[in-house]
Amino acid sequence: MYSLKEQEAIIESAICSLRFVKEPAGLYEPLEYMMSIGGKRLRPRLCLATYNLYSDEIGDNILSPALALEIFHNFTLLHDDIMDRADTRRGQPTVCKKWNDNVAILSGDVMCILAYKYLAACPADKLPQVQALFTRMGAEVCEGQQYDMEFETQPIVTGEEYINMIGLKTAALLACSAKMGAIIAGAPEEQAAALYDFAWQIGLAFQISDDYLDTFGDPHVFGKKIGGDIMAGKKTWLLVEAIRRAAGEERKRLNAIMAMPDNQAEQKIAAMQQLYIDLGVKQDAVKAIEEYHEKAMECLSGKGFTAEQLELLKEFSASLVHRED
Amino acid sequence: MYSLKEQEAIIESAICSLRFVKEPAGLYEPLEYMMSIGGKRLRPRLCLATYNLYSDEIGDNILSPALALEIFHNFTLLHDDIMDRADTRRGQPTVCKKWNDNVAILSGDVMCILAYKYLAACPADKLPQVQALFTRMGAEVCEGQQYDMEFETQPIVTGEEYINMIGLKTAALLACSAKMGAIIAGAPEEQAAALYDFAWQIGLAFQISDDYLDTFGDPHVFGKKIGGDIMAGKKTWLLVEAIRRAAGEERKRLNAIMAMPDNQAEQKIAAMQQLYIDLGVKQDAVKAIEEYHEKAMECLSGKGFTAEQLELLKEFSASLVHRED
């Protein structure tokens, strides 16, 4: 088995060797740009990690499908940025900002199609199962994005609704990545299914920690401005919980903070951070992340994984959950 | 072999039995709407027709991939309507008009993904070849749309550039449809390739006739307003040819017509129609359609098709080329 560091290097070099440059440049340049501005490459890394639990033979039959996951992820980001009217992504101008919406729509479309091209490099006998898994995930991610948009104008979002949304929008792709690596490596069905459930729970923990870091992260480490979700009034785990808990005076306080204008950003963010602390939402978010992390590990127990396999999965999930960026 | 009428009925009933209704409704309703507002269902019909040249066993393994072509086609229309700022499609409000751009983007995305879901119902041993064909087509359609948009602001478009663009935007999907039916039926490779080339040429003839009908069609039969392309200044076969031919006085006349404001629509359309007649562009468009039609039939000769098979293909292509709507 390769170390996670080695796996990360393999994925990075595979992504660097990706070449889309093709006519018309107006269609393919934004795609190259989107893939080049980085990110953690979590999905292909997870796919390679679960594959590597069973096989050390790392060739195009696993790297190409792993890249398909990253290409698909970037396609969804490209279109999300249009829908969210986002100007920057990973500190760089978004495609819809650098070019325009039409370019972002069409380049995103071809990106989605190319994801299926890379997916198809998996072993032919695995393609039907891999494609069914990938396509189900693709629909789920769209469903999650739809719920996320609907929540913006929905005054009350229950914790259950929130978990369902992030499950579709974030966890489904990680779960697909984990199971895909296992399927391609020819893992036992029960273990492939366990890896899916494991990664789904990790995905929930990952998204809640993302919500947490957006409000309480270290701006120097996190890489983006703190408080973006607060200013956007986004229904994060923190806000959903705060709305559920705040009563009486605190409810008035919450409403007052949410009503604060954009030109008072600093005060608004500070006030909301304090309210999250006072309501115990901050510390409970950390607890929730740990609970989903534990649930994830439980999904793996009793499935016949070796100690070595479990060790690698534990290390991978810890890096996702105990992150600062 | 079934008659084209019987094949059409089989496709219609298959499309009517399609059910997307699913949560969230905000994501899937626009998709149902788009599929329900009709169209000629040419692509699934062509796919079924070429399949039926070899097999009478019509089940889900051909109908589902045939529907994938129609779903994919409607996905591209849904996104094209955003990019073209179109208000109506087939006499109905477009999704971006009836709902909004974000809904149209996301519903289109899930439609593209669902197309791959339906595609995957083809025989497992055929999936790698079918998927590679479908994915190559998908990228080509995006490339064609990109060129089409670039041509809007490009003063001179050569005939060659125009044919390349409509090849990618229109012919590629018909060619894919024809070859896919043949592949799934287990046709000889040479014949599957010939059907691809045949449908590509038919696609060119089909698009030029579409350009022709938009300017010279019978509004009652054509189903949409005549002159839309003229008002949009679209680089159609007619305009590309007119720009190439017009010199001296006629060039001045052409420029003057193109400069006429939108509030003089009737006069502008009438003047351009007359110029097309005076330049011989109108009659030559009809000739060009016939030439591509003949080229299409030539692609089939000497490939060992039976008289019965050729008869059906001839009938199908004639219905596409000699159309009034």
Can you give keywords for this protein?
homodimer, 325 residues, mainly alpha, Farnesyl Diphosphate Synthase, two-stranded antiparallel sheet, globular
Shape of chain A: globular
Q: Classify the oligomer.
A: homodimer
Order of helices and strands of chain A: HHHHEEHHHHHHHHHHHH
CATH class of chain A: Mainly Alpha
Count the DSSP helices of chain A: 16
Radius of gyration of chain A: 20 Å
Count of discrete domains of chain A: 1
Please describe what this structure looks like.
The structure is a homodimer of 325-residue chains. Chain A has 325 residues and is an all-alpha fold. Chain A has helices at 4-16, 25-36, 42-52, 60-83, 95-98, 101-119, 127-152, 159-185, 189-216, 219-222, 228-232, 237-245, 248-258, 265-278, 281-298, 307-321, and strands spanning 88-89, 92-93. Chain A has one domain: Farnesyl Diphosphate Synthase, CATH 1.10.600.10. In chain A, strands 1-2 form a two-stranded antiparallel sheet. In chain A, a hairpin with a 2-residue loop joins strand 1 (88-89) and strand 2 (92-93). The longest helix of chain A has 28 residues, at 189-216. The mean pLDDT of chain A is 95. The interface between A and B is large, with 37 and 37 residues.
